[in-house]
Amino acid sequence: MTSLTTTTPHQGLDALAPLYKACGDPLRLEILRVLRRDTFGVLELSQLFDMRQSGMSHHLKVLHKAGLLEPQREGNAIFYRRPLHLESEAAGLPDAAVRQIFQTIDRVPVTGQLQERIEAIRQQRADQSQVFFARHAEQFREQQELIAAFDLYAQPTAELIQARAARNHWRTALEIGPGEGAFLPVLADICERVVAVDNSADMLRKARQTCEELRLDSVELIEGTTAALKGRPERFDLVVANMVLHHLPSPADVFLEGSELLRPGGYLVISDLRSHDQDWARENCGDLWLGFEPEELNAWAADAGLETGESLFIGLRNGFQVQVREFRKPENTAREKNPGKNIKSF
Question: Which NCBIfam families match (predicted)?
Fold first, then answer.
């Protein structure tokens, strides 16, 4: 008779042990739950769960070691998010288990009290951004061009949109965060009606001046966020966000709300920075985030029910890289598996 004590665990099962052990604490599951599409720092997570920083750091260390989350450096600060590589074709048994864990805990709604604390942190971030733009509205173009001149990303974005528009009869477009309104003429030339929404009254005033000077009568300017549009019946053929995500308290919401505001078959087009380590952009340009990995945008889009389309990556001489990304809302609920393609890389 073979003794059970001589049996050794299968290598795959052995790798699962620390994973499920890390999930054995309800608080850690709550942490993973709030990180579904948000990224939080240690202090923010301590605020959310009303606990000491040392205790939170311990839980994050356990979750990180088990492969359930990963650190994201934003200058001198460390934030935490869910792993980005889980959808890789090379993912093994532990990654499949992590996906299943996330799918299960995501079915549990966030409590009202916890959601209120999340909203409070988002509001703190939004206030920080608004204060910057209120102080620097008159120097917005100069500040932005410290990173990327407008034409360097606006022209490729316009060309991508115009190519799509030539094959689609688009009538309505929405721009999120139009800034001074420099991109509005492109949208007004393509669509019969354009809506632009911005939460900065100072930037919206400059956009209004642009519309008046160029006689863009088809453009409606709205002060607020995309949440203000969700109660309206109008749906758009195209939603655009140029260099906006890195200023937003919760960038993933653009994908969720953009998807809701798109008609079936409509397109969300994003231009923004890839991840970088130039921390001076926070103070000089009002950036909340130091860019994003393409996989991060893909994950947010998939979570919002959008298909990934074409991509364009533009390298700049100052070390920054801009990504122009296209996402499509399916015509029906049966999504096609399309990983997208890169059309060019400069």
Answer: HTH_metalloreg (NF033788)
More confident residue, 236 or 73: 236
Cα distance between residue 331 and residue 346, in whole Å: 32
In three-state form (DSSP H/G/I as H, E/B as E, the rest C), the secondary structure along the chain is CCCHHHCCCCHHHHHHHHHHHHCCCHHHHHHHHHCCCCCEEHHHHHHHHCCCHHHHHHHHHHHHHCCCCEEEEECCEEEEECCCCCCCCCCCHHHHHHHHHHHHHCCCCCCHHHHHHHHHHHHHHHHHHHHHHHHHHHHHHHHHCCCCCHHHHHHHHHHHHHHHHCCCCCCEEEEECCCCCCCHHHHHHHCCEEEEEECCHHHHHHHHHHHHHHCCCCEEEEECCHHHHCCCCCCEEEEEEECCHHHCCCCHHHHHHHHHHEEEEEEEEEEEEECCCCCHHHHHHCCCCCCECHHHHHHHHHHCCCEEEEEEEEECCCCCEEEEEEEECCCCCCCCCCCCEEEEEC
Q: Which amino acid is at 321?
A: Q
pLDDT at 343: 43
% of the chain beyond a pLDDT of 70 = 87
Q: In which residue are the tokens 């991840």 written?
A: 275
Sign of CA dihedral 327, 331, 335, 341: negative
pTM greater than 0.85: no
Asked whether 266 and 329 are in contact (CB, 8 A), the reply is: yes
Domains detected in the chain: 9-110 (1.10.10.10), 139-345 (3.40.50.150)
Place of tokens 């029910």: 305
- Distance between start and end Cα atoms, the chain: 67
Residue 100 C-alpha from the chain's centroid:
23
Q: Choose the weakest-confidence range: 118-122, 253-257, 330-334.
A: 330-334
Length of the chain: 346
